[in-house]
């Protein structure tokens, strides 16, 4: 196989990975502005800009942990054991910045809801890539009551109009980032040549 020079931008994309163990510092305000501006370049049918982000940082993280975990327990989620709650609180205490993620659905638009949610997911992916390119780490989590409506409402995201998509934890990796082996893209692609394909 012929060796090709690796484009720096593609190298950054290919070396990004989720980092759950994070610590301060978070991106500086000007860096966060660049990161969030990258979200604005996401593909977006109808130019609806459905993505919405709620920033949670500083002392607000502890307050949010209190109300969100209480809501999760009230929901009856059996996974929120005392041990799990302690672990979640400990993890959140170390993370300097959270972004809650949501798609604001335009119910009057001809653009299907699915496409509006996909546009928001693309915006989040841009945030993840930009965060990595600036030397920080991030982790997309749905573990803190993402599917509990009360948690969504606490953040001002009415479930009638928003599809809540979890949180990005953002900060500085708290440990060395080990390399990861990715699958070969060729295992995930076929070519259609004009002949009908038999299902199965």
From TrEMBL:
Give the cofactor note: Binds 1 FMN per subunit.
Key word Zinc present in the record? no
Q: Quote the PANTHER family the UniProt record gives.
A: NAD(P)H NITROREDUCTASE YDJA-RELATED
Q: InterPro entries from the entry?
A: NAD(P)H_nitroreductase, Nitroreductase, Nitroreductase-like, YdjA-like
Keywords, comma-separated and alphabetical: Flavoprotein, FMN, NAD, NADP, Oxidoreductase
The highest taxon in the source lineage is Bacteria
Concerning CDD domains, the annotation shows: YdjA-like
Q: Which gene encodes it?
A: ydjA
**According to the UniProt entry, what is the EC number of this protein?**
1.-.-.-
Q: Which organism is it from?
A: Bordetella trematum
Protein name as catalogued = Putative NAD(P)H nitroreductase
Q: What are the residue boundaries of the Nitroreductase domain, all occurrences included?
A: 15-171
A Pfam family of this chain: Nitroreductase
Task: Please list the GO terms describing molecular function.
Answer: oxidoreductase activity
Obligatory cofactor(s):
FMN
> In which family does this protein belong, per the annotation?
Belongs to the nitroreductase family.
Which enzyme class?
Answer: oxidoreductase
For the ligand (FMN), the binding residues are 16-18, 45, 140-142
